[in-house]
Each structure stands twice: as C-alpha cells, then as structure tokens.
Specification:
The complex is a heterodimer. Chain A is built from ten helices and seven strands. By secondary structure, chain A is α/β, with parallel strands linked by helices. The longest helix of chain A has 29 residues. By secondary structure, chain B is α/β, with parallel strands linked by helices. The longest helix of chain B has 15 residues. In chain B, the strands form three sheets. Chain B has a seven-stranded mixed beta sheet with strand order 3-2-4-5-7-6-12, sandwiched between helices. Classes of the chains: A alpha/beta, B alpha/beta. At the A-B interface, helix 5 and helix 6 of A face helix 3, helix 4 and helix 5 of B. The structure holds thiamine diphosphate. Thiamine diphosphate binds next to strand 4 of chain A. The site of thiamine diphosphate (TPP) has 14 residues of chain A, from strand 4.
C-alpha cells in the first residue's frame, strides 16, 4: 500500500465532507424556497462513507454509485458546476441536464460511470467494468455502491458468485443506513450484517464505521490492494445514518423519535482531526463555493429541447 | 451454387455461419469476447465449436445460469472499451435480463448525456424448434422496436446470419441479434471474405415482383419464397422483402415496394397482435394510403403460448398454404 500522510489525508477528507454538507444544506433551503423538478434523496449524515471510499480509488478506477446525496461525484473529482447543473436540470450539468432529478451524474474521464436507477443493476455493470479492466490488462478496479435495501436483490448474489469465481477486481461497497424508504433492515434480512454473507461466496466481508471517513478509507484501500493483486472481490459494509427522510419533504411518520440516538456527525468526527482554524476556513470556503455554484446553475439555461432525441444511438 | 464453382463461398449451416462470424471478428479485434452458458462447448447447436481452442477460456467465457449477470456485465464491459457478445440460449430468457437489456443497454448512453458507447451484442434465438415448449419458443423481436436505444437483427439465411452478426459486432450500439431456431441447421452459400458485412438497416428484395409486396423476415422468408413460387403459376407475382433488421427499419424499401405494387402483406413468426406487422401496417397506411388497392394484411403466430406438443406447435405459425391463400385473396381484391 502506498503510504499516505495522515494529516494531509484528514484535511482532504474533511474538505470533501464539508463541501458535500454545504451542498446538502444549500439544496434543502433551495428546495424549500423554489420547489424542485426531481426526486432528491438527501445524503446528509452519510457523507463520510463515499468520501473515504472514493479517496482510496485512483482517478481511473470505475465508480458506480447509488443515488443518495452528492458526495460520490464530488469525492471522485467532479466540480460543483456540473453536479449542481444536473441537480437543477440545466445544460451545464454533467449529462447536459438530461439526467436531472434523481441525478445521473457521469464523467468517464474521472471514472464516474453513471448510475443505474433500478437499484441493484450496478452490481452487474461494475463487474463487467472490472472484467474489462482485467481483460485489457490494466490495474483498474470497479466499485459498486449500494444500500442495505438493495442487498436483497438477486443481482447481489449473481454477481458476487461469478465475480468471486473469476476473481474480478470488484468492490461491493454497502452504505447500510438501516432503512430502505421506511423498511427496516432487520425486518428483511435474516443475517445481522450484510458483510457476513460474503463468506458464502468465498470473499472477505468487513463491517466498518461509516461515520468515520478515515476508517472507511483504510478498509477500502485494503480491498483495492487485494483487487489489484488479482485476489478478487471484497465486500465492505459501512454503517451510516440517514439523517433525513427518504426524499426531501418525507414526513417520516414511520420513524421512532429516538432514531438519531446513536448518530455521530461525520463532519464533526473529521473536524476533530484537523486544526481548528483550518477547519473553520475550509467550511467557510465550501459554503461560499456552493452558494456561487448554485447561483450560476440557477442562471444557466435549460437544455435545448432537441437533446431529447439525441444520443439514443451512437 | 456449390463450393466447387464459387471458390470464395462455402456451403455451411446458419448456426455455423454465426460461429464463423464470431471467429473472424475475434481474430480481427482483440476486444471482442463471448460470454454465456456452455459457450465453451460451442453452444447448444454447436455453431461455435472451435472458438475455445482458438481463443481460450479468457475470451470464450462460460457463465453460470445468470442471464441478468451476463447482459449487465456486457453493459459494463462495453462502456469500458470491450466488445462483448452474450449468448442467451433462448430469447424467452431475455426477460430475465429485461432490466439489463432495456434499461441499461438501451438507456445508459442517453441518460448520461451521450458520454458512453455500448457496443454489445446479445444473441437470443427465437421461435419454435420442434417441441421446445411455451417458455422456450418465444419470438420477442418486437420489443426493441418499442423500447428505444437497441438495434435488432433477424437473419433469414446463412449468408445474412454471418454478415449481419459481423455488422452487429462492429456497430457502436447495443444490438439484439435474433437467430431463428427453425433455421439453425439450414445450409446455404456463405462468402468467406472476412470483411463482408451486411449493413444494419438495409432490407433485401429476396424476390422482385409486381402483384403483392410481402414483407417478412427470419424463418418466414423461405416460406414466403415457396409461396411465391407456387403462385407464379397463377400469374401472381409476389415481391418478397426480407427486412433483415427491424431496428433500424428500412422504411424506404417497404414504402417504395408498396407504392409500386399497391398491395401489401406482412408475414412473421411473432404473435400477430401488436407484432412487428402491426407497426409496419400502420407505416404503410400512413404513407401509401392512396397507392393501396386493398387493405394491408397480416399473418403471424396465434395469440397463445406455443404448446410443447410438436403436433400442435406446427399449427401455431403461418404455413405456406396460409401465405398462398392470403396473397391470392389480396391479388384478386
Ligand atoms: C429495483 C428497484 N426497486 C425499487 C426502487 C424504488 N426505490 C428507490 S430508493 C429505494 C430504497 C433504497 O433503499 P436502500 O438500498 O437501503 O438505499 P437508501 O435509500 O437507504 O440509500 C427504493 C425502494 C428502485 N429504484 N429500484
């Protein structure tokens, strides 16, 4: 494993979380004030998982994210302009404003390979990308991000079975927030963890504290190393907290009053590892950057209607 | 035509022609690879025999019974620089991989603003094959006509099977390749030129004629040609159009032919209701209404699951007699 300066790494992770949090906070206000053309699934509270995981990937490693929050594209290097552009459905978005609402961000040059919104579909696709990397003889790995609810899909099983046999450089990365819309994980899973299922496929499985970006980084870095060494897939389960509703505006009547009792804010955990003045500066800069990007996106044009019929075929 | 008189053609089966296309394309392009159940033994009908000996198990990849995985993985491999070919044993099982085919292969490029190409080919045999039964005899080739983003090919003879598969592999888009099971062992002359590809979207005039345009594809083409032969004795001269690809559909060839003959019928193996014929009939009606001498007619399979009984199976599909009778009625209308 390449040695990384822990202080520098902590600052980088804190910066990503601060920027993601600033987007989350600004979007909540924006949606309250202006309404919103899409189905926004807030990712507040879960930022550390994507932050730590993406930091352990190289620029050309493949990322297939699930659609909660903005952290994944941000952490993998996408700018705020294209991210917020897509959120508002503007031509400046990474998909030209086509993939807005439940956003489909993508930037192949950053390894951000897009989103399959029928949940569980990215297991297969990520495995295909991993297979392709292996056949082309590169050292790239592919990461498939998913939620606890999605771990019930048959695709979870099919892919892990075949990927294990073929020793694909694939990382299953679960953000287990304990709930899928309103359905509790323990009500739909016979196993206490998702990680323990990995044993059935001859693959290592590990549970990590997903509130702590540094812990997530370490776990994913180990899995990346295994994958690059030709040892096959790893399943990592990051325990996280979905602070908000399933969608912005969800009244959450299904939630008990004390559901946040065990929650620890990932922003505060990382802040404790960064010099106080620097941390304040990072947070302030993130807020300003996001405010400017939001203003820019609001002023940007909607896509030309002709894009609807473009890109059906290459 | 024989092997002796035309040295650059060989008489081979429809299935072997697909195997030849695969071998040639794998030789030409190292990013082409094959995935599927039992592909290492040459596939169910044996057309891919020899591939594993030449290309090894890295490029001829046996999978488990994982239709959704194969197609989904093909999507991932295609968008990252490979050209996967997936062999699904039966088109019926494409529904198991429905999300992967129609939502991933068909939509990924569009929904991400055109950033990706998905050059994948899914081979999925259609139609009956002597008692394969209701869950193994489906003709699903109308689906890509309705779900945008996928091309669709249905070859009617060995030469087309090869040339169209080669075109499908070279195409930058996802292509659903539907061989007809009824034609698997049919033999015919196939050009050996490894660069002979048949462009997607160009129909063939399988037989020029003047009385009725018969639009068909796949395993119904030989039956339509047989009917045309029978009717020529009655001075009914059928023009037979073999569509070869359903997406893109060669509208120009269809419309020019119907404008000329003033009579049209569509014959396919898929169920008649909402089959490809429904779309083609509507197209003709919209564009050739004033040229028509008679209503556009259609023949297709019954609207019922195809029984496993071979005796009943036969009765589900348009026969040469059915085609002759309908064409005769049209010609006299
Ligand atoms: C295949 C599929 N079924 C249902 C849905 C509708 N849906 C969208 S998000 C969601 C919950 C996902 O739960 P989980 O996987 O735990 O992720 P989380 O939302 O908690 O991040 C559901 C059911 C979908 N998008 N795809």
């Amino acid at each position: 494993m390449t040695t990384v300066d822990r202080t520098e790494l902590s600052v980088a992770l804190f910066t990503t979380i601060a920027r993601a949090r600033a987007v989350e906070d600004a979007l909540a206000v924006h949606i309250r004030d202006h309404g919103f053309a899409g189905y926004w699934h807030p990712g507040k509270g879960q930022e550390a998982a994507a932050t730590g995981a993406a930091a352990a990937l190289a620029r050309d490693d493949y990322l297939f994210y699930q659609g909660r929050g903005v952290t994944w594209p941000l952490a993998k290097g996408m700018g705020l302009g294209p991210i917020i552009g897509d959120l508002l459905g503007k031509a400046t978005g990474s998909t030209g404003g086509k993939g807005a609402g439940v956003p489909h961000w993508a930037d192949a040059s950053l390894g951000i390979m897009g989103e399959g919104a029928s949940l569980g579909s990215v297991f297969h696709i990520a495995a295909g990308a991993a297979l392709s990397a292996k056949m082309r003889g590169t050292s790239q790995v592919a990461l498939a991000d998913f939620g606890d609810g999605t771990s019930a899909r048959g695709t979870f099983h099919e892919t892990l079975l075949q990927a294990s046999v073929w020793r694909l450089p694939l990382i299953y990365f679960c953000e287990n927030n304990g709930i899928s819309v309103s359905t509790r994980f323990e009500d739909v899973s016979p196993t206490k963890t998702i990680a323990e299922r990995a044993a059935a496929y001859g693959v290592p499985g590990e549970v990590v504290d997903g509130h702590d970006a540094l812990a997530v980084y370490d776990a994913v870095a180990k899995a990346v190393e295994r994958a690059r060494a030709g040892q096959g897939p790893t399943l990592i389960e990051a325990t996280v907290t979905r602070v908000g509703g399933h969608w912005e505006g969800d009244a959450q009547q299904y939630r008990p009053a004390d559901f946040l009792a065990d929650y620890r804010d990932p922003l505060e955990i990382m802040r404790s590892r960064v010099d106080g003045d620097l941390a304040d500066k990072i947070v302030a800069e993130a807020r300003d950057e996001v405010a400017a990007a939001l203003e820019e996106a609001e002023a940007a044009p909607y896509p030309d209607p002709t894009v609807i019929l473009k890109d059906v075929f290459a | 035509m024989s092997v002796e008189t035309v040295p650059d053609t060989a008489v081979i089966s429809y299935d072997a022609a697909q195997g030849a296309a695969l071998a040639e394309e794998m030789r030409r392009d190292p990013t082409v690879f094959l995935m599927g159940q039992d592909v290492a033994m040459g596939g169910f009908f044996g057309g891919g025999r020899g591939l594993v000996e030449e290309f090894g198990l890295e490029r001829v990849r046996n999978t488990g019974i994982t239709e959704a995985f194969m197609v989904g993985a093909a999507a991932g491999a295609a968008m990252t620089g490979m050209r996967p070919v997936v062999q699904l044993g039966f088109a019926d099982f494409s529904l198991i991989a429905g999300d992967e085919i129609f939502q991933k292969l068909g939509k990924w490029r569009h929904m991400h603003g055109g950033q990706f190409e998905l050059p994948a080919v899914i081979i999925m045999p259609i139609g009956p094959s002597g008692g394969a039964g209701p869950e193994h005899s489906g003709s699903m080739e109308m689906l890509p006509m309705h779900f945008p983003g996928l091309k669709a090919v249905v070859p009617s003879n060995p030469a087309d099977a090869k040339g169209l598969l080669k075109a499908a592999i070279r195409d930058p888009n996802p292509v659903l390749y539907y061989p007809s099971k009824q034609l698997n062992f049919k033999r015919g002359p196939v050009p050996s030129d490894p660069d002979l590809v048949i462009p997607l979207g160009q129909a063939a005039i399988a037989r020029p004629g003047t009385t009725v345009s018969v639009i068909s594809y796949g395993c119904m083409v030989p039956r339509v040609l047989e009917a045309a032969q029978a009717l020529s004795a009655e001075s009914i001269d059928l023009e037979v159009i073999d569509l070869r690809t359903l997406v893109p559909l060669d509208r120009d060839t269809i419309l020019a032919s119907v404008t000329k003959t003033g009579r049209a019928m569509i014959v396919h193996e898929a169920p008649r209701t909402a089959g490809p014929g429904a779309e083609i009939a509507a197209l003709i009606q919209e564009h050739c209404f004033y040229a028509l001498e008679a209503p556009v007619a259609r023949l297709g399979a019954v609207d019922a699951p195809i029984p496993a009984s071979r005796f009943l199976e036969d009765l589900c599909f348009p026969s040469v007699t059915d085609i002759v009778e309908l064409a005769r009625r049209l010609a006299r209308a």
